[in-house]
Amino acid sequence: MPETTFLIIDGNSLAHRAFHAIPHLATSRGVTTNAVFGFTSMLFKVLDEIKPDLVAVCFDKGKVTFRHDQYGEYKAHRPATPEDLRPQFPLIKEVLEAMAIPVLECEGYEADDLIGTLVTRAEKEGLSCIILTGDRDALQLVSPMTRVLLTRKGISELEEFNEGRVWERFGVTPDQFADFKGLVGDPSDNIPGVPGIGSKTAAALLKEYGRLEEVVSRIDDLPARQQEKLRDYREQALLSKQLATIERNAPLEIDLDGCRWAGPDYNRLLPVFSRLEFKTFLRTIREKLGQAEDGKDKPSPGEKQLKTHRVPFQQVKRGEDLSLLLQLCRRSGRVALALCGRRGEGPAAAALALQPPEKEGPGPTVHYLDLDAPALRTAALETLGAVCRDPEIEKLLHDGKTALWLLQHHGIPLKNLAFDTMVAAYLLNPADAGRDPADLALEHLDLVLPSRSEEALAARADAIWRLSAVLGEKLRLAEMERLFYEVELPLVGVLAEMEMTGVAVNGERLKEMSRELEGKIAALSRQIYHLAGEEFNINSTRQLGNILFEKLELPVVKKTKTGYSTDASVLEELAGSHPIIPLVLEHRQLVKLKSTYVDGMAALINPATGRLHTTFHQTVTATGRLSSSDPNLQNIPIRMEEGRKIRQVFIPRREGNLILAADYSQIELRVLAHMAGDPNLIEAFRQGQDIHTRTAAEVFGVAITEVTAGMRGRAKAVNFGIVYGISDFGLARDINVSRQEAREYINNYFTRYPGVKDYIDRTIREAREKGYVTTLLNRRRYLPDLFSANRTVRSFGERTAVNTTIQGTAADIIKLAMVRIHRELQEKKLAARMILQVHDELIFDVPAEELPVVQELVRRHMENALVLDVPLVVDMKAGPNWYEVKKIEEPAGEPPRQ
DNA sequence: AACGTCACG
DNA sequence: ACGTACGTGACGTTA
Known about the structure:
Layout lengths: L4 E6 H11 L12 H17 L3 E5 L7 H5 L17 H11 L4 E2 L6 H14 L3 E6 L12 E6 L6 E4 L1 H8 L6 H8 L14 H11 L2 H6 L6 H9 L1 H11 L21 H11 L2 H16 L18 E3 L3 H14 L1 E7 L8 E6 L10 E6 L6 H13 L4 E4 L2 H9 L8 E4 H8 L8 H9 L7 H25 L3 H21 L1 E3 L1 H26 L8 H11 L16 H7 L5 H23 L2 E2 L4 E2 L2 E3 L9 E3 L11 H4 L5 E2 L5 E8 L2 H10 L2 H8 L4 H10 L8 H16 L3 H8 L3 H14 L1 H17 L1 E3 L5 E3 L8 H37 L5 E5 L3 E7 L3 H13 L10 E6 L6 E3 L10
Helix pairs in contact: 1-2, 2-4, 4-12, 7-8, 7-11, 12-13, 14-15, 16-20, 17-19, 18-19, 20-33, 21-24, 23-24, 26-32, 26-33, 28-29, 28-31, 29-30, 30-31, 31-32, 32-33, 33-34
The structure holds a DNA duplex.
InterPro entries: 5-3_exonucl_a-hlix_arch_N, 5-3_exonuclease, 5-3_exonuclease_C_sf, DNA-dir_DNA_pol_A_CS, DNA-dir_DNA_pol_A_palm_dom, DNA/RNA_pol_sf, DNA_polI_exonuclease, DNA_polI_H3TH
EC number: 2.7.7.7
Protein name: DNA polymerase I
């Protein structure tokens, strides 16, 4: 019979260890969790390695222990438990409770004493013990049946001590360890020991005499120097020993059977990890769960069976069931729809969750449609189509945009998208990482979704149904209903159409550009190799660094964490010192253009449409902006002429159409003027002044007419800085002035625009009170960084707070405009299409004859998206491609906008 | 998978 | 005495 093992953990010691080993970790709402995470990691690892039969975790309890009675100064120099750690203890205990591991505490005793007591009792029962701790005192408990695992640096390294190891390391037996500490002392517990006696002497004395008491009584036999020390500190040594001796008979009420451990209770653990946002643990558990249920991996003997949210569902198998399903959907009035399939294909299956006949309980009834089964395929798709098309039936989805793509494959439109759980969850907390239905079900419903396909799809539909109610209510409480129902939800369909329309590109021109770039890059490479005296990989920063800073011995300007920095700012600084530098810079630029834009985009042209169909992400950014990928069409070059030419390949979809580009002028500064309510800044915009010139006049104290180009340039940087959360350092670096000078500009700015200063202060203060900031439409971002103990991180949080209100409000505004523009283009049955959004601009593909109408419509919706205290101004350009767009003058004769 | 770099607003 | 501008995505290299 295998031996029975008892794992005993010093909870306090491990928590401290974890706290110091894990740098910084917090939930998206700012709850610090680094110690909980580290503790849990260590726990899992050790449980996995040892597979104990019994487990217990001991904690200190009470400020005063019996040791304080013996010695008032006990642990007096120990720094107080860090403020960030204290609130993590309850969380750790929560994890332990969910793990079904007993937590032991005893008033007036330290964890050590409880461990000593447990070990003593366990050994009597013939159990072998393993103690996990960071406290060396525990070494006195080592015996033939008991080992100690001591944490070393970090959380992953453990050192195992048996009797032999203790002897090797300290030269004493475990049961002499308290005697040893009596002589040597322990500064961390403020145990004095005998000054002047170190570990070598102590070990030698104990080897000779066995016990401290014996050493003391035979004091006359000792060498003179030690005699002296011991005579002076005799009492102190004995007291020190007493303090270091672990109590083995604490009044613990639990019996050993109470520590039997049969594996974690995953069902209790999941919601705990979910609240702590331990995504990797959650994933591991979910995987385990799936495997256990599929029977591929038998649950280990004691492991509890995992419970999953299984929902009964009806598989639609016959034609008549289909027409019944449609009727049921109509009667229900709303349907949660889950589809499976990839973009570019039709859906392979669908699950529909409906209102149950009698409204009992929160659960819907679920129907499952196999859309790949040949027999029923056509009829099933028709039924699905009828449900989707019916504007009377509300559709609840998760990621409606992808659903629109799948349905569109069969020409099915989706009317009445009434909820999107992915978008709703994003608004509730844009920082949350996991946002698939299983993550949301866990977080908001405490349900674990199954992973097997039909079951999973049915459960997903069920979860979407329930989540719509729960998330809808949370949106209401957060006052985000307008943002959700008027902006984000309608935007889902708008973005889908933009993606599907796509952007036509001139593929031939792209190929030409690729060849041209290829030639230029090859020529540059040859010159670079020649100057370097050898061939190397110019794309490798490491190889380039070696050439520049070792072979050519150029001065090292900046380092990265892995070596020399070779970024553009470094190379520009070195430009004069070697002819190779400008060539490398140009090489970099051309390689970027070729790989990312020319070749990268060419590979993504849809062969069927000849266009690029980017994906817009509505639930990615922390601020509320969109992002774009595959390809990213929000970062097409414009600043450098060579790159800007890429825009030539973006053309209208047909002969006779034009590209129309409409961009907000200075939207972020206008938003700032409004939100800050600064009279001076508002006035500047109302008068239609060039804002950078105006700021230059204010900051440099000159008349508008006296502002030079240089002054305007610096003022422009100041304006940018304000939006980003300014610092003198950043500004100084950006415009190449001294830090003092930058400081002065900023001070002048705040004097001239005092409302802005107030706004920044107010925003940060409110963010600290609430833990989050909001935009004009109540979009929310939590900022846990504001509460960091690290000053740099905190400052970052403060800059982010200010920037998010501005960037996010600008995002609110353009999204609102997009929804309304799309709506009116549709109502007017115009052939013009909105094809791109680039944060502050919208791009359209417009038949020439529609240009006047579309232009007016676009301007109207963009400029009036929200009424602010300053006008919103839109600049319009049009042309045969995205490169050759020329400014269209604003309608004349209008009175100056107020 | 992480890093450095660089394209955009 | 620190170390900083805010928000993204794609590429190639290196581990």
